[in-house]
Write a structure and sequence with these properties.
Elements lengths: L1 E6 L6 E5 L5 E4 L19 E6 L2 E6 L8 E2 L2 E2 L2 E4 L4 E4 L2 E7 L13 E5 L1 H6 L5 H8 L2 H6 L4 H15 L3 E9 L6 E8 L11 H10 L2 E5 L20 E6 L8 E7 L14 H27 L8 H9 L2 H5 L2 E13 L1 H7 L4 H21 L3 E6 L2 E6 L8 H20 L10 E17 L4 E6 L1 H16 L3 E3 L1 H10 L5 E10 L7 E8 L9 H16 L2 H8 L8 H11 L12 E2 L4
Parallel strand pairs: 20-22, 23-25
Antiparallel strand pairs: 1-2, 1-10, 3-4, 4-5, 5-8, 6-7, 9-10, 11-14, 12-13, 12-16, 14-15, 15-16, 17-19, 17-20, 18-19, 20-21, 22-24, 23-24
Length: 588
């Protein structure tokens, strides 16, 4: 069976795709299943491929810009035999004609051991930081996959990338009668003349028992020429880990590999790191698949759209409502702080950490939705919401600011509450207002309801700047002016923080902080805000000594003033030569 294997410059930049028989397929950076998103030197549509009579025909697409190289030569039309490869940009594409067969006649292992979930839960990772980082990629893997096939491709890649001693990995499923095992997707680290033959006995035993099972073979006692021998050279062990839950009944992750330099010691306990990691991957994948199945079975759009979108869909044509359109929006980015520290402290309870992060994201989305916003996306441990679509909202900026203040208050209350799941977390929030394109945005393979445009990038930049400027909530000038003119000071206040030029941008911004009312935040009075803004004005015109004096009228507990105070002190209270009133930030 023909496969095309793409390998980028990084180990995780890889996929194995089955080549469709006697059908043309397009290879490119944005080409459906044959997409290579990691390589910017590859055009959106770069090559047309076709499998015909034992060879792969490849032709450069008319819209492609960069060359295709075969054996070091630039070629536009050529045929490839199994084992040969071609190169585009930094990615190598290798043709392999390989078969996979689940063997029911595998030799009996020398050692067999079952690992229960409770046993693995008590085991501590040797490299917890790396494992946590890899596990954090799973939600992105699932959300970025348009179907089960793509999920299996990405999970298989993750297993090979995460387990250095693994030679091959697969996602498999056993039929209801347990008489048949189907390989949904597989891959291996290197091309091999032998066909990939995972052990059906091992897979069925693991699924039947509902626990991870390891088989270890004494390869020196086996005859590789024996047709019943199913393990490839340098493969000493294999394990299968079932996916729990009804949505993934019969599913399992299968991994095989070698002990490497410790080949003389064949102890299944050496694989506890790999087994615990795989168990967490399997549990997370199963939970996400269960959630997806629940959404489908409920047949309810409420699982996919914010209430305001559902209201619009109830009385308008969905195609019209969701069609991308240019609108005035206010965008809010909210990022979770304290996640890295919590990750280290929760190395033995990663699922518990995942629940805490989910609760934190739930607080963000709750207040976005409560203020009539749309949850546009999740970026790791951050959430993005926006207002002004699908219905115009004249008060979109006010709604965004109310949501930001409510989120801030929720996390501040949690910080003062013992045994609260949000206790160690803080947030940074950026809000910007302007024109954007909102609606159903994406590719032919995957779309989502979100917002796109410079104002989105600006809100994200402001959220990043909360770290450097030490302000919980930052606004762009447009949003700040709306708050000053339309929102009573009994609800919200603003203060001009500084004129800055963000890292990587050419345009200066007047950045403002959003504050609660004086009643809700008495530590920062209106007089304090006035003194701070006078300091900003003095700084801007070059009177840094007066600015320094004014900043000392602001309470010491105010973290925002530290940014300007340190800057002025570093320059001995004198404006540098060529000062134009704008502070250039040297990092994001």
């Amino acid at each position: 069976m023909p496969y095309l294997i793409a390998q980028g410059e990084q180990p995780q930049q890889r996929w194995r795709r089955r080549v469709p028989a006697e059908m043309e397929a397009v290879l490119g950076r944005d080409a459906g299943l044959m997409s290579v998103p990691w390589d910017t030197l590859i055009s959106r549509q770069h090559a047309v491929i076709r499998w015909d009579r034992g060879r792969l025909s490849v032709s450069k697409h008319e819209s492609a810009t960069n060359a295709i190289f075969v054996r070091g030569r630039e070629v536009e039309n050529f045929a490839l035999l199994p084992g040969e490869h071609f190169v585009i940009g930094g990615t190598t594409f290798t043709l392999a004609d390989e078969n996979v067969r689940v063997a029911s006649d595998t030799p009996w292992p020398v050692t067999e051991k079952t690992f229960s979930s409770n046993l693995l839960q008590d085991y501590r990772f040797r490299d917890a930081d790396k494992r946590i980082d890899l596990l954090s990629r799973i939600p992105e893997i699932i959300s970025g996959s348009s179907n089960d096939v793509e999920v299996c491709v990405r999970i298989t890649n993750l297993m090979l990338d995460s387990i250095p001693t693994a030679r091959a990995a697969a996602v498999v499923v056993s039929a209801d009668d347990q008489a048949d095992v189907k390989v949904l997707h597989w891959d291996r680290r290197a091309l091999d003349e032998n066909e990939f033959t995972p052990s059906g006995r091992l897979i069925r035993q693991s699924i039947d028992q509902g626990e991870s099972v390891v088989h270890v073979w004494e390869s020196m006692d086996l005859d590789p020429s024996n047709p019943t021998y199913t393990q490839a050279s340098n493969v000493d062990w294999a394990f299968a880990t079932p996916l729990p839950g009804e949505a993934s009944a019969g599913w399992a992750i299968y991994v095989s590999g070698g002990f490497g330099g410790n080949s003389a010691v064949r102890d299944p306990d050496q694989l506890q790191d790999e087994l615990k990691f795989t168990e967490l991957v399997a549990t997370t994948l199963a939970n996400l698949r269960q959630s997806q199945q629940l959404q489908r079975s409920q047949a309810s759009l409420s699982q996919f759209f914010s209430p305001i979108v559902l209201d619009a869909l109830s009385w308008q044509d969905p195609d019209q409502v969701l069609a991308p359109q240019e609108v005035d929006v206010s965008v809010l980015f909210c990022d979770l702080r304290g996640f890295s520290r919590s990750s280290e402290e929760s190395a033995n309870d990663l699922l518990g950490l995942l629940n805490r992060v989910s609760n934190a994201l739930g607080v963000m989305t709750h207040h976005i939705l409560k203020q009539g916003g749309v949850v546009g996306d999740f970026h790791g441990d951050a959430a993005m919401g926006f207002w002004g679509w699908p219905l115009k909202q004249k008060d979109s900026a006010e709604r965004a600011c109310r949501a930001a203040l409510a989120i801030r208050e929720a996390f501040e209350i949690a910080a003062r509450t013992n045994n609260q799941s949000l206790q160690d977390f803080q947030v940074g929030i950026g809000v910007a207002t302007g024109k954007a394109v909102a609606g159903k945005i994406g590719t032919v393979d995957h779309v989502k309801v979100t917002v796109f445009g410079p104002v989105v990038n600006l809100a994200s930049r402001l959220e990043n700047m909360t770290k450097k400027l030490r302000a919980p909530i930052l606004l762009d000038e447009t949003t700040a002016n709306i708050v000053r003119n339309r929102v009573p000071r009994s609800i919200a206040r603003t203060r001009r923080v500084a004129n800055v030029k963000p890292y990587g941008m050419q345009t200066a911004l007047e950045v403002c902080e959003l504050l609660p009312s004086e009643e809700d935040y008495p530590a920062m009075t209106d007089e304090h805000i006035k003194a701070y803004e006078e300091a900003v004005d003095s700084l801007k015109v070059g009177d840094w000594d007066r600015a320094f004096q004014l900043l000392h009228q602001v309470p010491a507990e105010d973290r925002v003033k530290d940014f300007l105070t340190v800057l002025i002190a570093q320059h001995n209270r004198e404006a540098p030569d060529g000062w134009d009133g704008v502070i250039s930030l040297d990092s994001k």
